[in-house]
Amino acid sequence: MRMILPETGDELDDFELAKAYAYPRDRWLRTSMVMSTDGAGALDGLSGGLSGTGDKRVFGILRVLADVVLVGSGTAEAENYKPARPRPALASLRAGRPATATIAVISGSLDLDLTSPLFTDAPADARTILITREAAAADLRAAAAKVADVIVAGRDKVDLAAALTALADRGLSRVNCEGGPHLLGQIAAAGLLDELTLTVSPILAGPGSGRIIAGPAFAASRMTLAQVLAEDGYLFCRYLREQPE
Q1: Is residue 144 part of a domain?
Q2: What's the domain count of the chain?
Q3: CA distance 35 to 209
Q4: Domain that holds residue 140
Q5: Would residue 81 count as lying in a domain?
Q6: CATH of the domain at 117
Q7: Which of 10, 55, 165, 219 is the most buried (most CB within 10 A)?
């Protein structure tokens, strides 16, 4: 994998890649997504169909750098989420923190399989977090609390700003949101997105596939292209809503 913007052409090892994706500030929300060359956010309903070796490498680095991985419940279920796996070779990048990032799942209904490995296999120091709303059924909240840490943010719907504050209060302020499209749409509409890391896959998905963002319309905003890496036809782009202070 080599850097083409800024134009150095340098091949990057994992530690150099981590430096390229370093968080500009302690409190920062980035979203990592992949799309086809014709704008599709999934292939056969899954984003993994657009991925490749380099994309998986970046995906792993972004998880190592994050305090918490934020994901919608639909994506967590469809993509069969599990706890983040330790990366011993990169352990120095997590000095002073648990060996893996915590997974935080947003679910307004809490209609989840609480027996899945995402909950049963999570390490004690990175227990899975469920973010829900006050209106969620009390019995489901009680059941969830047995296998995960539960954050209640918002009354009738999940208040994303309040959820991010609650995560930051737990020391989980560097957030890597892995989608899906509806969650990305909500984050962008709320003005909470600091950064979009976007992999452009050299695949034509064809008509019918959804985009990387979904939900109600919101005002368009411009982002700054800060970095581009390339490997095997894939482009790895880093867009910032604003330049870091």
Answers
A1: yes
A2: 1
A3: 10
A4: 25-38+49-203
A5: yes
A6: 3.40.430.10
A7: 55
State pTM to two decimals. Answer: 0.94
For residue 164, is it within any domain?
Answer: yes
- Domain membership of residue 129 (yes or no) is yes
Q: Which residues pair with residue 149 across a beta bridge? A: 129
